[in-house]
Amino acid sequence: MDKEIIKRIANELNIGVDQVSNTLKLLEEGSTVPFIARYRKEMTKGLDEEQIRVIQEEYNYQINLQKRKEEVINRIETLGKLTDTIKKQVLECTKLSQVEDIYRPYKQKKKTRASVAIANGMKPLADLLLKLPRHFEEKDVEAYLNDKVTNIQEALQQAKDIIAEMVSDDHDIRNKIYDSMMNYGRIVTKEKKGHDDQAKVYRMYYDRVEKVSHLASHRIMAIDRAEKEKVINVQIEFNEEYIENFVKRRYVRYPNSPCAVYVNEAIVDGLKRLAYPSIERMVRSELSAKAHESSIDVFSMNLEKLLLQAPIKNKRILGFDPAFRTGCKLAVIDESGKMLCVDVIYPHQPNAKIKEAKTKLVKLIKDYDVSIIAIGNGTASRESETFVSNVISEYGLNVQYTIVSEAGASVYSASKLAIEEFPNLHVEQRSAISIARRLMDPLSELIKIDPQSIGVGQYQHDLPAARLKERLDFAVEKAVNLVGVNINTASPTLLKHVAGLTSAMANNIVTYRQENGKILSRQEIKKIPKIGTKSFEQSAGFLRIEDGKEMLDRTSIHPESYKYAKIVLDILGLDEHAMGTQIAQKAVDSCNKEELLKQIECDSYTLNDILDSIKQPLRDYRDNNDGPILRSDILEIEDLHVHDKLQGTVRNVVDFGVFVDIGLHEDGLIHISQMADHKIGHPSEMVSVGDIIDVWVYKIDEEKHKVQLTMIP
Known about the structure:
Blueprint: H1 3-13, H2 17-28, H3 33-39, H4 41-44, H5 49-78, H6 84-91, H7 96-103, H8 113-119, H9 123-131, H10 152-169, H11 171-184, E1 186-191, E2 207-211, H12 217-228, E3 232-237, H13 240-251, H14 260-307, E4 317-321, E5 328-333, E6 339-345, H15 354-367, E7 372-376, H16 381-395, E8 400-404, H17 409-413, H18 416-421, H19 427-440, H20 442-446, H21 465-483, E9 485-486, H22 492-495, H23 503-516, H24 533-539, E10 543-544, H25 562-572, H26 582-590, H27 593-600, H28 604-615, E11 645-654, E12 657-661, E13 668-671, E14 692-701, E15 706-710
Parallel strand pairs: 4-7, 7-8, 9-10, 13-15
Antiparallel strand pairs: 1-2, 1-3, 4-5, 5-6, 11-12, 11-14, 12-13, 14-15
Helix pairs in contact: 1-2, 1-5, 2-5, 5-6, 5-7, 8-10, 9-10, 10-14, 11-14, 12-14, 13-14, 14-21, 25-28, 26-28
């Protein structure tokens, strides 16, 4: 491991060098991020999953950067053009793009005007012009003419082409242009003629000027998309006169030389034709990359919060998949998620059978003792909500409903996984089951769907697919391992996200259960094919056994710490069966941790985790999060007034604000400026997906059926 890189990362993250080096050592040994975060806190001093991910990514980037620096230095040296200055410039680079920019003049280029001029023998003439001699006449050019370049004007032009490329490749000049564009430039967007933005989605960019350094990520993404869709032209404006004067001072030391006019012309050409467009592409690329990473951060954060929403426990749920022509598909599931019944009703035009629909719905609710109706938020959602609300009121039913996101449900319902699970059902019936299960256990159900289909991001289709997948997979893995998995009921889809397990191992676990019955202890996991010592070490703590032989197997305590847990129980005077009782809670709250540490000789992090598990052995991490808002009557936009106070669920967090479900057809928007009475950097500082928050109506647009909300009373 590179000590200098480790020091640099420690400084950047404001953590200890030993925290970074220990983390990298554990990763090098094959430990997973969730395992390190949960069971190696004593080595990392409590670093969480995100910090460990950043260390891993930053170290890999720095190693690649260092490798590329060495390659570039060696290649320039091979060309015989390496100087101490160039070597120093390369070694001081902090980004790969900076290294590539220094290497740019030394790369073998495609055919350019300058390369043609050099091949034609015009380099000596270019060198003469750059020397700015006191005496020069055009007839002096005749000495440089040859069979390829036969006239004076052509020779002068080719010499200027060579100088223009020299100016464009000059590292100091490029840095000056980059600095001017990035720190002092303004991005200017103008509407193009004949575009197809009929809905005026990009209206705010038809004529807009903004400082490059002030551009928010979501605006960069919007500008990029509008430009791609040929709605606007985009350019960066900056002080070109300042750059021109800087370059002329650098190259034209003797402005009275008769050659100065040619050099000045070459400078202007090199800047406008070559350097400016090149640096503008670089700046735009960096802005886009930064915006992409920011959007991926938001998407990843939203996905994690969505997966970790509190489950609805011990309730029977009716999934309601709305539609107009084909009817609304219904599915009832029991407390474990098992399908009890599927049906279809027609409460809407063009095939409305309202009386029959009401009778069927009421019968299902009563026959199966349904507590909650989960209505999908797709086509006919609000019409279905009105129907359900009216039925509840008309028949005096003791049942509530909530709106559930359908995003990705149709993708799952037609997938191989869904067909294997429900081979005899239609796609729409599977979708109704999925909607119900999403409410019962969001993590177990949403895990079956490609994260990119869940729809809690911004401009997700414009993001680099590989990087997005990598981060979303990380968010899924983090959520699954935070919660833990019941090894005897979990699907292969859920099991494969457990730290240390592969898809093959997950399938082997299911096969083992089918052939041998329930797994009764964590030690039994070692018997499953392909699960070796390392896989067991990494996964065991996240795999729970509810009704096994060993009580500690129900908890998040790792088997390697059972000996410490049993000593702690003994010192506290507790039996394993007492874990989770009030007696255990009192014993933990009143114990002397310092004395315990001395007696059991383990680290404080492990002791704290053991004590937490003794107090709450079956604690579900998600129970701390908000559940859905359950309703029994419908809200119409006509019912709203400015300043009305409402309660809503955060559905999406984006750079410019948050979208909140307050019970209307469209989610209300809280702009970032309306989230606090002080300036905040990002909406995620205030709320997360799934949070239930108090809001006030700020503006109402009845024509567009849109509501703006505020969190400021």
